[in-house]
Specification:
By secondary structure, the protein is mainly alpha-helical. It is built from 6 helices and 2 strands, in the order ααααββαα.
Length: 151
């Protein structure tokens, strides 16, 4: 792998993290995608707001249709509520239920432990190397890939 491209390495690391998250969350009955939605909803809700499905899709980078399907499934399982948005009749706002809060808090701890384990080779989550890596990844995420219209 020493001659692998950066894109290939990022993809492999993403697969490793995703498989690890799926493994540690199996015990609480969540998939990586469900966790991404619930943990993001938890984080965004801590400011006292109830984000819309669209806001959650934008935050997670997940397709809005996929977020809608995930939210419906999580609503059926009692993890969240989907209510009409008070300011936009076309939008749906999401709120964690008590059950959802309990599960997501446990899941966040499990994923944090996994991150400590997976990031140990570069000094752990708080290390300067990890901080630099996170900064680099954020920069890459803000770059738009070329399109046919804008090469």
């Amino acid at each position: 792998m020493e001659r692998a491209t950066t894109g290939f390495l990022v993809w492999r690391v993403a697969l490793k993290f995703r498989a690890g998250v799926d493994r540690v969350l199996a015990g609480v009955g969540l998939t990586h995608a469900q966790y991404s939605l619930l943990a993001s909803l938890y984080g965004l809700s801590r400011s006292g707001t109830a984000p819309s499905q669209r806001e959650l899709a934008d935050h997670t980078g997940l397709d809005p249709i996929f977020v809608s399907k995930l939210a419906r499934a999580l609503e059926r399982s009692g993890m969240l509520r989907r209510d009409p948005h008070p300011a936009d009749s076309r939008a749906v706002e999401l709120t964690l239920t008590e059950q959802g809060l309990t599960v997501v808090r446990e899941a966040i701890e499990l994923v944090a432990g996994l991150h400590r384990e997976l990031l140990a080779p570069i000094g752990g989550p708080e290390s300067p190397r990890n901080q630099q890596l996170a900064e680099t990844l954020r920069a890459l995420l803000t770059t738009q890939p070329p399109t046919k219209e804008n090469p």
